[in-house]
């Protein structure tokens, strides 16, 4: 067992011992393996980080944007050079399979590659004026200090979605990662600092949720924070949205999902099963884009359930370094909440997918389990058929390896079912009919739509985000995220030598609006 590492917050380049409790970040695949001991900060330390960011941001904003882009590019190159090591740490600390961890690290590289170029494209516009000898301009200006709070299910990719564009745009960042992904966060921050990000421009604060909220409330009140980015639960997102609203700020909220997959009568069921297996059970169902409910047409429902049940029963579960579909749950608190979600299974449901539900143990084994489940947070995959739109398991996010299946007759009914839970992150439809695709896209409330693909999977140059319970309409990734970390500034420059007043001293052209074409021009037509 590797000796635990003691971790402190890092503010303005200096380690700051925490004033709160000490948290043990454990390997969820082997709970006896302590990855790191984390000294949590108190509210005052959180505010100190925001103050340090405020001080550092002024100089960082003066660095030309193309140069800031070079720093982001160097960050990506350092991640590339450390790809395997960082992926192994992700696997160890949060239990993600090594293959998925490699993909997650690649997402950082892709993100940095994209924003390297955006440093030369933080375009404003030169706008013609309605008056002579006057010119109008627009500029993207940094927001200021951004507080970024992230979950640990994507402990490095999702933070990069915030950090890379925030830095590129000239902001300073206070990053509060999940406590149970503390070592991974420190590793990512170290790579950013060594890429040339100044110490106070990126500050790393370890704190629990309530302390973070208390510190954020105080920092907003002191005028130290200009933007909040949050990835996590809908419940916490509501609290952050309310807090920011009191300070006339709009946060970037990326929240939970209850993502539907609709199977039309002409769906390729074999491929749909593969997609449902990946998006429903990959990362042990702990993605915001994880598949929630399959909504299958009545003509294909029974065959799909049979095929899907076979695939889930055959899926390899266990040690995340061994090529399995999924490993353990992230942390004990998520195991407890997932067990609560399993209690939503009712008598009218048909439970498939494994030999049992709940935790995999010697007394409740999973056939074909890879490794030893005795010291890890391993749970049976669960497939629930017979789900109804009034069921709690249909309406609420479960955040674990469980997928529901229900049926429909008409496409309108399928769209209504897909929208019923009120989330709006991701949705998928399986069909070869373009009309079905476009009717589904038009009717679904999700911010992201997949056709003949899974509900999970994002590319670095497409907007990522949801609506309804899944977020406030903000978007990450691609050029769209620039609107989160910049504010538009306009400037008018009058070089006429006189005071020209808008809407008053405007050049006009007289038009004869009473003119009509002669009638004889149209005779014989």
From TrEMBL:
This is aldehyde dehydrogenase (NAD(+)). SUPFAM superfamilies: ALDH-like. Its EC number is 1.2.1.3. The active site is at residue 254. Keywords: NAD, Oxidoreductase. Belongs to the aldehyde dehydrogenase family. It is an enzyme of class 1 (oxidoreductase). Homotetramer. Transmembrane segments: none annotated. Residues 21-490 form the Aldehyde dehydrogenase domain. The keyword Flavoprotein does not apply. One of its GO terms (molecular function) is aldehyde dehydrogenase (NAD+) activity. Pfam families: Aldedh (PF00171).
